[in-house]
Hints:
Strand content: 25-35%
CATH architecture of the largest domain: Sandwich
Number of helices: 9
CATH class of the largest domain: Mainly Beta
Helix content: 10-25%
Largest sheet: 9 strands, antiparallel
CATH superfamily of the largest domain: Golgi alpha-mannosidase II
CATH topology of the largest domain: Immunoglobulin-like
Number of domains: 4
Number of strands: 40
Oligomer: single chain
Amino acid sequence: MTFGLKKLEQLFGECGKPMVAWQIDPFGHSKEQANLFALMGYTSLFFARLHYLEKEDRLKNRSLEFIWNCSEDLKTQIFTGAFYRNDYGPPNGFCFDALCRDDPIMDNPDLEEYNLDEKISSFVTNQLCTAHHFQTSHGVRVFYSTPSCYVKGVLESLSARLLTKADDFFPYASSNHSYWTGYFTSRPTLKGMIREASSLMQLCKQLDALADLGPEDDSDIEIMARASALAQHHDAVTGTAKENVTKDYEKRLHKSILEGEVIINDYLKKIYPRKGKKAPTHILCPLLNESICQPLRNHSTFAVTVFNSNSRQFSGLVKIPYYSKLSMVMNPKGGRVSVQLMKTFQVSSLNSHHKAPFELVIPVEVGPLGYATYIVDNSTSVRSTIPLTTVRITSRMITDQRVSIENEELVLSFDENGLLAIFEEKRTNTSYEFRQEFFYYRAYVFRPDGEALSVGKAQLEVVKGPLVEEVRQTFNSWVAQIIRLKKGAKHIEFDWIIGPIPKEKSKKFNPSFKYVDSEPVSGNYYPVTNRAYINDANRQLTVLTDRSEGVTSIEGGLEIMLHRRCFVDDHWGVEEALDEPGNGDGLVARGTHYIALKQSQVKLLCFSEIADHKGKSYILFQFSAMKRSLPEFAHLMTLERWDRKSLLLRLEHIFQSQDDVEYSKPMRVDLTDLFTQFKVVRMTELMLAANRNISSFDRPNPYPSNFVITLKPMEIRTFKLDVDWA
Length: 726
């Protein structure tokens, strides 16, 4: 939004700042999106599609126009109008597009086809019929206008208060058995690629801002922004485009990732070297999810640079494809790091002669808005780790024993079918029954004709080491998974691999506590962009996702749809079945879910060749752009260049008012002397989209020299920072 609105302002000035939002053809509407529009300064919002039963009800009670209450915490609201028709076309008989066959208006009485009186009568009748379903009661006066003028007229002429709404328009249904919920998951690899490209773009914006890179890098970032913006089209990220169109989206995103690689190297050239030396070139490996990084195969010594775009310290593990049985890893200070080397999980659907035979797990520490470089040397004769315990077990072999993995916080136990059965917290000495299974639906489109069917038992491979313990499950030729516990982690990773599949595929998480919901399956699916949870009075199950997916709650658990393959088109406009070819046999998708108590942090891996360890004398192996981490409640959402002398900053309070005893209240963030690469000299508060000053909305701007910001729960505040670069 900010990118597009900035372009409009550059082209049209003040007249290019829209006040009305028009959502063209999404399949359902979120009140959070309405909340964002309100925070951007929009006065109103219009759309067409809503659930056919709600549409009938709103027609009867004349509530197609209403006030949408968007946030319990921020008390935002926006005037909203649902169109009388379910589309964006003209009234019947008045389509003058070249592809339409409606009669044109013939206003010359001398013509045999003269129809002006007939057209006027038809138009007035149509508008009076439409007006009957709205609160306003005017006659008919026809003139050219704008949505802003229309909203002003409506609000000034109302004799009664409009009704309000406080929830979402999800799920969307066009008829009794036509719930548009499958698209929440359609094309999962595209959804994952969009998320990765967006994350990389945010990192590159930060690097450009921090190092004061030049106009060429600004142009590279614009390429990335255009690709990510286009991918938000209602037929792109939804997965509802044709296959060839989808390939074009992927091509643009791939190009944006290559531009990101250029920006990363430009940043490191400016920050990395000392004494006038040249920084080594870094590369991104886009096939890490397939355990492939070809450049690493041919180098005995290389650098792994880990970026942290989060505003808090990152301490954790990174995993890279590895092509040797030997390894020595040095941290940024030159000390040797204890790592873990393990064989790659062999899955038939991901077989490739480029696939690395091993994976190397490295513990890393990266400062806020920083990076850290680790040197990996496989030429040494010393093996990297203590011997691992690797046991292959089939479900037939498990009789009286329980397979389990653990770390300092958790113990996971598996039953005789190879399925997760018990979840134990060591600190509280509490155990819970916990099942996680894969299911598939028998219908081609998402109109399930019965309950989901389980894929059955799993063969297990158990890997235990000093840093990671894993249970690797193989269910059949198209479903596999790694359940992973990392050292010191309070969350579980579920690394799923699905495809090529014959049906739609979902995953169920069932804790032992109960959650009641009686809605049908398809009508109870909702979009999840990053997390979903269910709870009772004592416990909460939270699932974090790495891409947009569909989720529902059934029988006290969460069901998340992971992958779809449809052999028949549903005839809703695509005119092509959702049958992604992948490499020819059908698409294989891989992703990760986190069962966690808190949000995981963002990290990015880059690789470069290092000839020897002597580079240590001229390379800055560790760097942080912040002198201190932000508090737990605060998230640095945006840091990017705004113009040649200023930056754009967004801060978010990530807690709701009832989330936390300590943090669910207004809290302060001090930007004074916070950043290492620039000094803030002036701060101006903007609306969320950054195209209007807060002061233009009768809100004073109290930040000419005071850089302490107060954030209320769930609040996002936007600032233009005038800065001096160090």
